[in-house]
Design goal:
Layout (H helix, E strand, L loop, with lengths): L6 H29 L8 H20 L2 E7 L5 E7 L2 E2 L4 E7 L8 E9 L2 E4 L8 E9 L2 E9 L1
Antiparallel strand pairs: 1-2, 2-3, 2-6, 4-5, 4-7, 5-6, 7-8
């Protein structure tokens, strides 16, 4: 051996090792806090108390026989098709609240125009990427609410 292993060597090795560990931890903590868009619910206890009510509303809505499909056009508009059984829903008022899953982009409210045959197109385009749509279609006293994951 040409050199001896001294206390200086072990000190440099330990400082370098823990420096790398700390740099990775601080970087990951920064990215985790910078990309999280907020809370899913403000109070999880209150949300858990309302959960059975949400399930009952979903069952009542399912019993009506509504179907709702969404597609995205090449120019990033959203097309919604609504029917009850085989009959399209032609005269509904359709709105949506579009949220980016991690809150990176601000949420947007979408209005829709009727295309005929139970099809509705958003007036505004959504930027490319994944969006969660909270859709609401109202016709008279009937109302359908759906949450759609739009890719």
């Amino acid at each position: 051996m040409t050199g001896t292993f001294t206390g200086r060597h072990i000190t440099l090795i330990l400082v370098a090792f823990f420096g790398v560990v700390m740099a990775v931890n601080f970087t990951m903590a920064y990215f985790a806090s910078a990309t999280f868009g907020g809370t899913v619910v403000d109070n999880s206890y209150v949300a858990s108390q309302q959960f059975n009510g949400w399930l009952e509303k979903a069952r009542a809505e399912k019993a009506l026989g509504w179907s709702l499909d969404t597609v995205r056009t090449p120019d990033h508009h959203v097309i919604v098709s609504i029917a009850q059984g085989a009959a399209p829903l032609p005269f509904a008022t359709v709105t949506a609240l579009a949220r980016h899953p991690l809150g990176r982009l601000p949420e947007r409210t979408l209005a829709f125009r009727a295309l005929g045959g139970g099809r509705y197109e958003s007036l505004d385009a959504l930027p490319a990427g994944r969006w969660i749509l909270h859709l609401r279609a109202v016709q008279g006293r009937w109302q359908i609410n759906r949450i759609v994951d739009l890719q």
